[in-house]
Amino acid sequence: MESFNQKVLFFTLAVIFLVHFSEHYHAEAKIDDFTTHLISRDSPLCPFYNPSETKYQRLQKAFRRSILRSNNFRAMRISPNDILSDVISGGGEYLMNVSIGTPPVPMLGIADTGSDLIWRQCLPCDDCYQQDEPIFDPQKSKTYKTLACDDKFCQYLGGNLSSDTLTIGSNEGQVASFPGLAFGCGHSNGGNFDKKHGGIIGLGGGPLSLVKQLSSKIGGRFSYCLLPLSSASTASSKIIFGRSRAVSGSGTVSTPLIKGSLATLYHLTMEGMSVGSKRVEFKGFSKNKYSPAAAEGNIIINSGTTLTFLPQDFYNDVESALKSAIGGETTTDPRRIFDLCYSSLSNLQIPTVTAHFTGADVKLQPLNIFIQVKEDLVCFSMLPTQDLGIFGNLAQMNFLVGYDLKNNKVSFKPTDCSKH
Fold first, then answer.
1. What is the pLDDT of residues 373-419, one digit of tens each?
2. Contact present, 175 and 114 (Cβ < 8 Å)
3. Residues marked as catalytic
4. C-alpha span between 98 and 201 (Å, rounded)
5. What's this model's pTM, rounded to 2 decimal places?
6. C-alpha separations of 106 from 59, 100, 166, 199, 204 in Å
7. pLDDT, tens only, 296-335
């Protein structure tokens, strides 16, 4: 398995070299910084939105997707060969509008820091799922190329490894076009896909992700600001790319990115959590055995997972400290998803909860740690896991979260994302 992973890594790096030093390199966009929308899949702006569902029904679906993604990440770590097939069939919580080809063909794709591939369906289709958007026809693009690929890597694409011009519209009205980006052009994609699903826009750490392929242009930097769930339904979160867009200023804290077993995922080191003045030290797992100390890279940060997952014993200690600090009468989640719930928080004192990463103390607000799952039920939005921890998007809302892949760090800055 190790030799196969090394082979995949060598192959993908070779593809990036081929793409970026192709004959089209001189035409690459001169826009070094740009901002675009991240559309929540539960927003009326998203084609996945179902107006007949209540906001609580949509939340329940997001919770189930979180649990499924947590299980998928575990499977990815156990069977790295399945990474691409899992990414293609997986879900996410945010979408981006991009276009591929010349002339450009629009694609509303799932944008996710847990994916490392740009992918869409292509004609001719041997086994394609039905989709609302026009299926991309490579023969109609003047800039399309099929990249030579006889490696096992390509078996997971269900099609060709290709290159073409990718265009992103910015909030400033600019259009950024990037010739020669590698993407998966799928011709055999049978499975459980939503017809509104246009493709994947991987923002992970693997060499075929959007941010890695644009690294020389954006200085290896991107950031996002996720709106709280209570924000106006017509608003959207933002994602920012660019070398001059480092997250800095008052309140900013930074923690190292740790190289994990999968290049796709962004690993951080959590040392513990504080509930008010009470600090709870991290307890994790190491090869299915309890690890008394915080090992490096013990949690991943992921934009496509709603909930936060903590190793079971650590979770138990955090929940116990939170329950003790809040006091008040608890209630039961009838769906048995959450362990700590209240009928209301209005008359309760919610302590400050601080996530202690190496070199960075991230102070979480009530909106980051509690979620109203129905009219008379508010629950602690973290769950126990028997595997690697996940710092989900609820915990990241109203923070400007910056990824600096050149200097290997992630930064957090408390921000009103509705004004960013």
1. 999 999 999 999 988 899 999 999 999 999 999 999 999 999 999 88
2. no
3. 112
4. 9
5. 0.86
6. 28, 7, 10, 10, 22
7. 899 999 998 899 999 999 999 999 999 999 998 999 999 9
Per-residue DSSP letter, 157: G
Question: 3-class SS at 155?
Answer: helix
Q: Which residue has the tokens 């608890």?
A: 330
| Residue 221, both tokens | 């930097």
Residue matched to tokens 């996945």: 48
Contact between 228 and 367 (Cβ < 8 Å) = yes
Round to whole Å and give the CA distance between 184 and 169.
21
Assigned token pair, 238 = 């933002």
CB atoms within 10 A of CB 334: 10
Q: CA 415: distance to chain centroid? A: 19
Q: How far apart are CA 398 and CA 67, in angstroms?
A: 23
Question: Alpha helices, DSSP H only, in 32-119?
Answer: 55-78, 83-89
Distance of CA 188 to the CA centre of its chain: 25
Q: What does the chain come to in residues?
A: 420
Question: Which residue has tokens 């070779």?
Answer: 14
Say if residues 198 and 109 touch (Cβ distance below 8 Å).
Answer: yes
Q: Where are the beta strands (DSSP E) in 287-408?
A: 289-291, 299-301, 308-311, 341-342, 353-357, 360-364, 370-374, 377-380, 382-385, 389-391, 399-404
